[in-house]
Specification:
The protein is 77% helix and 0% strand. It is mainly alpha-helical. The chain starts with a helix and ends with a helix.
């Protein structure tokens, strides 16, 4: 589980790298619970693409390796999953 300080630090990290704009940042910050902030942040980043998703997963694997291990996340697996999702979405366009 991502703790509130993890979500805030990840949010700041992604915002500083222009993954999120000010409006998206404020939307995440406006959520009432840490769980809601984490869901909103992850959902927002995952739809942005490979680069953005990789930045998020890289950050988490460096700072919360035990969480990523439990979830089966590593930078390579995240890129593969995002690529497969993007390919499936494009097939229906």
């Amino acid at each position: 589980m991502l703790l509130d300080h993890d979500v805030i630090n990840l949010l700041r990290y992604l915002w500083e790298r222009n993954v999120l704009n000010e409006e998206e940042k404020k939307t995440v910050e406006g959520k009432m619970t840490s769980k809601d902030r984490a869901h909103c942040l992850i959902d927002t980043v995952m739809v942005k693409g490979k680069r953005e998703s990789s930045l998020m997963v890289d950050y988490l694997t460096e700072r919360r390796p035990e969480l990523c291990s439990a979830l089966g996340l590593n930078p390579t697996s995240a890129l593969i999953r995002v690529s497969l999702s993007s390919t499936k979405d494009k097939a229906y366009v």
